[in-house]
């Protein structure tokens, strides 16, 4: 095998809707007998050959006319993706509760910036792993990715329950769970593109709501159980919930069609396409600041005396509950007016609302901003996969393009929260909110440039 062949995976288009969903990447090679050429075949043999080709023709991933856009199997894949996202982004969205607990309890000797590296690594691996899981997905190992990710998430959660030092928490919660979420996220968004085309944003929005549901349920369970059964068993209970929900996803997962041809880890041609470059840059800049309130709004309410710990713990649940509506409703609208036209105003609004936290002087004002911020920020989490699909002409490289885009996005997520923590350590919360808000507004400007590059200057055009 040549040195270059290690960067490619040879596969063939397969419709495996009637199989167990696992493609073992096998190809059968049939050789013709040297004594018999096509011209030697009888007419009946020619007819049989044509019938055979017709009977066993496989749908192409680029043939949108064959996409079902509904039906029981298609909507079950939305359920599967929903459960996967509950345990990927839903887990990441829960870290704010852990951040507050670690600062005042288990890891109280560590600085907020140091602690935030745990959550940042977790979210970064969720997206960064896409650069490797994209080609693996395209090669057909979808079920293997989901099973591996399910194991790592549950195993990491159980190991977290035994952790007592910073590095143990970092390895179990940051690294192990992060790798598990990274294995599952690309399949959770890419598989829907094989079942939906005209209703893609709706399907993605419903699935992405799992992020908010997980971000509501997990913090509440954590907060309610922590005082009564302690950190170890609270963490194990969350692990059992993850195990049950991931079992549902694995049971209903069914791959319909896979792309054909050679799959690369990186599609360098994407960087010659301005819409992809501009949109990827927008997500990088946006995720530098977008998650600042998710990590620090609870500690902000406690440290400034605006709320007691019991109420402050629910601020993250409020953020995520509002985000559920922000992922579904705008996604449905995006099917009609275009995803760019929906995400741009929402991102600008998120930036302004983050800056408005500077002016809050009561818990009521913080709650109002949490509700509004949760709604508009949810759009910037749910729609990027849809936009990556929309700006990718060749549907056969969707897995790779999503993986590349998420990898770029992950760099912003990785350093954003620790930078906010460092700013907090050096000054106060005003500059934290200013940092998050201005970067999010800058992302909105880049989104406008990406929208123009992809769809032109017409304001009323659905893009």
From TrEMBL:
It is found in: Membrane. GO terms for molecular function: transmembrane transporter activity. GO terms for cellular component: membrane. Residues 35-44 have a biased composition (Polar residues). It is a multi-pass membrane protein. The keyword Membrane applies. Keywords: Membrane, Transmembrane, Transmembrane helix. Residues 275-463 form the Major facilitator superfamily (MFS) profile domain. Gene3D superfamilies: MFS general substrate transporter like domains. Residues 1-50 are annotated as: Disordered. Belongs to the major facilitator superfamily. Monocarboxylate porter (TC 2.A.1.13) family. PANTHER family: MFS-TYPE TRANSPORTER DBAD-RELATED, MONOCARBOXYLATE TRANSPORTER. This is Major facilitator superfamily (MFS) profile domain-containing protein. It comes from Zymoseptoria tritici (strain CBS 115943 / IPO323).
